[in-house]
Amino acid sequence: MDENNLENFNEQVNTDTTVENPNKKLNIISIILIIAIFVGLTIYMVNVDGIDNIINLLKSVDYKWVLGGVGILILWFICDALTLHLPLKTMYKDQKFSTSFRIAMIGQLFNNITPFASGGQPMQAYELTKYGRRASDAMSAMTMKFIMTQSALAFFTTVIILAQFTFLKDLMNNYLWVVVISFIVNLLAIIFVFLSGINKNIIVTICKPFIKLGTKMHIVKNYENTIGKIDSSVGNFSTQFKNMKHYPKTIISIFVLAIIQSMLYYSITYVVYRAFGNDGVSYFQIVPAQAILLLIMTFIPTPGSGIGAEGGFLLIFNSLFKQGTINMSILFWRLYTFYLPIIVGAFCMIPRKKSTFGDTSQKYGKKHNTNN
User: Fold this and answer.
1) Which listed site, 93, 120, 211, 329, has its alpha carbon 20 to 30 Å from 174?
2) How far is CA 53 from CA 38, 61, 324, in A?
């Protein structure tokens, strides 16, 4: 990107917005719910499998695969951090990967403890402003990350599901309609995101009838105020979306990294499958089955899709895992994909000593004139 394009981009996103700390009370309630789900799952396992069987099963686990899963999880963390680090690095030459990693893990924490993964981005923006990053730049970087990671996830998921459609059709049997509906709704969500970026008026027009209905049902208090907020939010998103054209190399890099990240996430289920001595189903069959589970999890409104995720895993993989191993497999899978990211994210929330970032308004070696 040439210097003139960069200056134009900076002028367009120069107006900052206030980023507030997410609702702490809601987060506490979510954490309590997560702990309750974990305790409930443990009690269920003990009652169904018995403590002696659980101990024997743990002794028979192939821990080489367990360690392999930890390695995959670390690579997944790194990819997630890089998809945030790359756009930030194009804006701030002094951006450190360690900082991007910390912010990414904080995002993982709040995505997992809030319904529909809604708390990650606000908290990341809040943390970035504490590092001296402008809120507008933080929002721009996260817009790039969000759009490209969602696009990559949709692309990768579509490819692997179509490649193993016959196997998945037999696996899901009477529940194939759930897969089809989930796939269509997720595809529509991606289209909705792109429409929001291309033309905000389309989205506002689509939302108006629903807001009117909500007003009549006394769900929405103030019609005009709500429409105004939607118009402002979609407008900001549209601005950031259109500015992505100034970062073609970064966009492509994020997309490739997001494909790798999706593959790593789906691979964790195969690691769990092999850790408990399972064989006979290939990696290229487990991965698309996990992709279907993720599609279903998207609609579960609990933090981390709790209860629904465990139930979905049982529904999809019960026939593929050895008898007596499915419940412990669910626990291991959730440790990898849910509880460990929460633990790492919580560790990253520990206050650090303030680092020296130099002039945080410096981009590509050019200082903005603060007197103007």
Assistant:
1) 329
2) 19, 12, 8
Please write the tens of the pLDDT for every residue from 266-305. Answer: 999 999 999 999 998 999 999 999 999 998 888 788 888 8
**Are 94 and 357 within 8 A, CB to CB?**
yes
Q: Which amino acid is at 278?
A: N
Closest to 292 (Cα-Cα) out of 194, 146, 180 = 180
Q: What are the helix (H) ranges across the chain?
A: 3-12, 24-49, 51-60, 63-91, 97-112, 120-130, 135-163, 165-172, 176-198, 200-216, 223-243, 248-275, 283-297, 308-317, 326-334, 340-348
Nearest Cα to Cα of residue 277 among 52, 47, 58? 58
Give the CA radius of gyration of the chain. Answer: 22
Residue 7: C-alpha distances to residues 3, 63, 95, 363, 367 (Å): 6, 53, 19, 10, 11
Instruction: Write the DSSP assignment of 284-319 as a string of letters.
Output: HHHHHHHHHHHHHHTT--SBTTTTHHHHHHHHHHTT
| Residue owning tokens 């917005």 | 17
* Whole-number Cα distances in Å, 282 to 63, 164, 176, 216: 20, 11, 21, 53
pLDDT tens digits, residue range 323-346? 889 999 999 999 999 999 998 998
Closest to 211 in 3D by CA, of 195, 193, 229, 198 = 229
